[in-house]
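queue> pop job 88
queue> type: inverse folding (structure -> sequence)
queue> payload:
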């Protein structure tokens, strides 16, 4: 995927991490790799009484503010306090919001932010030229396994972007770092969530939702993310085949009204067939979005038609789940309807936010998306992620 013009040291994460370790080593430090799945940092560097944590960020684009905030929060946590300083090393550079953040920290910050070039770490004061011989003596990190979600329907306006972003929010609240990948040419995800969101929490480290454009996406750019959620293009064939093949779960939003069921029912059946041609393993969930309680009698009628539309697939496909809206659905809410108003309110410096604000102690979107995450975990299990 990488252009052949890229120098070898930024070819992929492994080469880059080795390169960074080598530059630091040349500058007189001892370098160690962190344990596989160690959260918060990739390398440890030591000299005399000084111990530093290094975050190696291999990116095709600039560093974002949430990525930096996650590292800053790690350094403030119990585990992070063991380090005298943190070094944040990246491939390309730092984006506008990230630069503003670094400036706001001032000169005495515990974090040094640098770009690793061929021969030196820029703004790392001890940068020394290196020769380019082999790196084979250096231990190769294992890439931690990730869980992939796709949010997909053949129709626009059903809630793909809304569901992708807020499912990310619900999972980030549970302690996972999430990569959101924008595969839809409309690019609404990037308009609404910017370059991502940092979600602080009480355990100290916090989590991030990092947003990637399709062109910037590479698994190694999100090594610290346990979960990847793709806001898919409504034309299945426009989504990168390798990503569709990787999906562990696919959420298919629909609406529970007579026309919605008629219109989407057939489309969803065809969609499932198409997905299955590429991917036989993903758990597929049909999810009712924009749910308005129609009253007991009508709900019963609508549910019959809804389940009937997917009866045939459910019989033959044991990984196809048609979620009972009485168990889990995403209710219609003003918070979701007006999500995005923050962009219009402040177009020059838009905030990144989700519709998870509390109103009188309740927040439908937050409750609904947490229930959705729980439902998926119960039905299909994301258990291995819990063991880290
Ligand atoms: N549960 C909901 N309640 C209220 N409005 C919603 C809900 N889900 C989506 N919407 C609204 O529907 C519109 C389309 O949703 P979006 O996520 O952009 O769809 P898609 O990505 O499939 O095109 C959004 O403007 C959003 O305001
Ligand atoms: Mg969309």
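queue> result:
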């Amino acid at each position: 995927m990488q252009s052949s013009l890229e120098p070898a040291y930024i070819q992929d994460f492994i080469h880059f991490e080795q390169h960074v370790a080598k530059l630091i080593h040349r500058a007189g430090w001892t370098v160690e790799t962190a344990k596989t799945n160690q959260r918060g940092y990739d390398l440890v560097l030591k000299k005399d009484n000084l111990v530093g944590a290094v975050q190696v960020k291999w990116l095709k684009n600039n560093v974002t503010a949430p990525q930096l905030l996650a590292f800053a929060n790690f350094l403030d946590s119990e585990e992070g306090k063991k380090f005298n300083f943190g070094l944040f090393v990246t491939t390309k550079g730092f984006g506008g919001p990230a630069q503003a953040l670094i400036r706001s920290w001032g000169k005495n910050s515990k974090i040094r932010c640098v770009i690793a070039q061929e021969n030196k770490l820029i703004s790392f004061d001890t940068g020394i030229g290196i020769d380019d011989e082999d790196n084979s003596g250096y231990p190769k990190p294992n890439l931690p396994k990730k869980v992939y979600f796709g949010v997909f329907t053949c129709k626009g306006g059903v809630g793909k972007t809304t569901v992708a972003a807020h499912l990310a929010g619900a999972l980030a609240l549970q302690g996972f770092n999430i990569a959101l990948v924008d595969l839809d040419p409309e690019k609404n995800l990037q308009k609404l969530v910017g370059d991502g969101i940092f979600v602080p929490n009480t355990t100290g480290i916090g989590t991030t939702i990092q947003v990637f454009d399709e062109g910037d996406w590479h698994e190694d750019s999100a090594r610290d993310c346990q979960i990847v959620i793709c806001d898919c293009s409504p034309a299945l064939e426009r989504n990168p085949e390798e990503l569709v093949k990787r999906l562990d779960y696919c959420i298919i939003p629909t609406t529970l009204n007579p026309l919605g069921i008629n219109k989407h029912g057939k489309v969803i059946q065809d969609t499932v067939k198409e997905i299955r041609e590429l991917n036989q393993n993903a758990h597929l969930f049909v999810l009712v979005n924009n749910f308005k309680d129609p009253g007991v009698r009508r709900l019963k009628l609508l549910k019959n038609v809804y389940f009937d539309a997917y009866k045939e697939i459910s019989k033959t496909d044991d990984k196809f789940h048609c979620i009972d809206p009485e168990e889990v659905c995403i209710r219609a809410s003003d918070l979701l309807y007006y999500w995005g108003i923050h962009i219009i309110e402040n177009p020059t410096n838009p905030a990144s936010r989700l519709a998870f604000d509390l109103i009188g102690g309740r927040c439908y979107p937050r409750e609904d998306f947490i229930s959705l995450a729980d439902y998926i975990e119960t039905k299909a299990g994301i258990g291995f992620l819990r063991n880290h």
